Input
Amino acid sequence: MRTGGVLNILGKLLLLLSIFLLTPIPFSYYYDDGMMTVFLVSAILGVMLGGGLVCSFQPEEELGYRDGFAVVVFSWLGMALLGALPYYFSGVMDSFVDCIFESMSGFTTTGSTILAQVEILPKSVLFWRALTHWFGGMGIIVLTLAILPLLGIGGMQLFQAEMPGPTKDRLAPRIQDTARILWSVYVLFTLTEILLLMLGGVSFFDAVCHAFATLATGGFSTHTASVGFFDSAYIESVVIFFMFVAGVNFSLHYHGLRGRMSSYWQNEEFRFYVFLTAFAVVTIIIANLIYGTYDSFSQTVRTGFFQVTSILTTTGFGTADFDSWPPVCKILLVSLMFVGGCAGSTGGGIKHVRLLLFFKYARLQLRNLIHPQAVGTIKLGKVKVPREVLISILGFFALYVAFFFLATLVVTALGVDIVTGSTAVVATLNNIGPGLHLVGPVQHYGHLPPLAKVVLTTCMLAGRLELYTVVVLLTPDYWAMAKKPVLRWKQGTKASTPK
Amino acid sequence: MRTGGVLNILGKLLLLLSIFLLTPIPFSYYYDDGMMTVFLVSAILGVMLGGGLVCSFQPEEELGYRDGFAVVVFSWLGMALLGALPYYFSGVMDSFVDCIFESMSGFTTTGSTILAQVEILPKSVLFWRALTHWFGGMGIIVLTLAILPLLGIGGMQLFQAEMPGPTKDRLAPRIQDTARILWSVYVLFTLTEILLLMLGGVSFFDAVCHAFATLATGGFSTHTASVGFFDSAYIESVVIFFMFVAGVNFSLHYHGLRGRMSSYWQNEEFRFYVFLTAFAVVTIIIANLIYGTYDSFSQTVRTGFFQVTSILTTTGFGTADFDSWPPVCKILLVSLMFVGGCAGSTGGGIKHVRLLLFFKYARLQLRNLIHPQAVGTIKLGKVKVPREVLISILGFFALYVAFFFLATLVVTALGVDIVTGSTAVVATLNNIGPGLHLVGPVQHYGHLPPLAKVVLTTCMLAGRLELYTVVVLLTPDYWAMAKKPVLRWKQGTKASTPK
Output
């Protein structure tokens, strides 16, 4: 591994984050919440750390395939650590573990909080929470659409063909191009949502924070009652629309904004996403009507639309306590938690496309049982899916199941009950936010044992980075190679790239 | 499809079951419980139905590959239906749905019961419950070791090489040979357990019934308190040993009994089974010691060993109410419910070998990420696993997840709470018996809505027949082919077999 090159990139990222750490200062000044020093000190520490790394380590002209894993994992760890400082210095949280939990929850766009009440926080800290989502969301778009496909992670290479920018080439220059294109889409949507929320009477501060949390499918709100605080059908509709938008592959938006609206419907994953949303909304509305959960029809419809979109896109905003809904709704919502957004969106979870291929394979297997000599292929849209991708999805599921099982085992071993413990793991591993029971939509994670918080923080990170990235770094093989540069794998990508 | 040939086999099976229907009569006479007419009438109806089928339809010289699916599914449906008659005629159950549930639970060796109290049943009916397990267990051994591999179901073809009997050949003659060998092993173990239980002071009646339920990994007991009724370390040890034995691939037992004891440890699935059992036993004993669930150390150890073996082998016998154990034990036991026994055992669930290959694949994927140009293969023992088998396992998981999700959705939609509903599906789909909460180890299934019982009955059948078998019959493709014999698939197996 080119450790120097990796640390140089990490340093640059921390410098960038330090600039972002200054942005809450105007809010602190305006609302006079006395947090200016907190953010200034955090930013200075960030500059010292980041600057130190950049000065100590030379940038590498080219980073190798395997270095990508280290860059990705250390980036998120570095962000979570630096981003936790304002929470720690402001004294709004009891322990550093809590600060790291909240910070990781922000940068991974999870939205699980350890806070019982959020209104009591200084405004600038609330802004920082929302900003960590937005910053993390930017990272995820680049990660899933530009970096992971190059690393060949869990079927993500499939989307390479459809992407606007890079091909299987050197990491740096093309990634920057792709990032610039996708970020402009991201910024454009954020500004539009801010504007639309303000038209609905939301304050500038709340509009910015909620738009940040929506586009990143994060879920941190500036109110304990979340979006339910506004109690407005218009505002909920705006948020529903942008949650849905944030759950779509951003390269589709890129095409859409360039006038090729047909690319949405031509995308099979998008159609599956629309179908699943519609199915869940209808089922939940019918169930809540039959059980008479709400007095009014309109509230049933509103909460149904809102919660399904919020959970399926892994945002985690709330307008209703779905933990008090009938069992069938709870099962459906927990199942949707596993699905997550589309690949290339800011949403977490297993992703629609993996599920789609999973079931396509089951269908092909059934057909093969009836016609044993027929050779079947699986297509996604018009593209034939290679077997390697299918098998990498099997591997992804194995890691996913193992992670889910081990994390749940540890959390419940610490005395957490089974519904709380298992749904807390589901909610963090899939980057959603709320689970059920003691971590339900009107609850929080603050009361969990510290070790459980550490495990759940790891789940957020692993889930966000598609598991493989984190697990690869935990294998001795990865580090053994790093220590023996003579055995370094000849990089196919590098060798075949004309200079 | 050769409908006539399939119905002829079904008729013969029903005739055989009718003979078994006569065996409770001596018990009825001895205990004078007035059930002789019930069993006689049931047997006569069975003979009429079975005889009618045998006389109306000619046996086919050879049955095709696709006919196998129909034979398997209709066999279990036919057994469940005929086996429900004694329950219905004796009037011990409220509805025919309950009778079918209990009968299917018997023949699929699930062991879920709709009865709150079992001691109040006539002795002969208790014997019949145990006998349905034993009869079903015989069916399962033949199914998994001789029929499913021929049908190419979900990776089961892998064991063909290791089996004592058949090769990929015509169904009938070789299957009979295999069946005879494996049944003699099954009978031998059953007789040994009866003897050992009687040496521990258990009555002949209880010994027979419990041995039947153990070797079939069923779980029906003649006492509401299950094996806990005897409150004897010796009896529990005997049952633990034979539950463990019943969870092992029966072809290993065949080799073992012929003196090749080394074949056990050479089998990688067996080693994984031993490892997983040991891991779960130790974890649960430690957790129960820390939580102080029991006053005495010996009881903690005894219940730990018993419950792990009972759940992992999908037997479902109880000596303790594990629903009152600490959360980590409950999560571990529920996770073990998915695993099930080894392939080729009478145990249900996903099977150890599938899980083993699943995780081997994850490991290979991780290695491939680090060495992208290396070509990896997966071995099971010394045999290289073909890609087709790996991919068929992916298909199996997809069907499994879909079945689990849909069944849980329907059961909870009927108003059952989420823990009860989801664990009831887990317990029936994996052929275990008890779940948690309202279907926990000291509870029963009788209070569930009738439609939920129908769904759970379907889960038992589908889980027992490795999903594919049942789902294939539900595809229009299967029946479309059947209607158009001119398009009938050329049977590779038949064509290549020299007469």
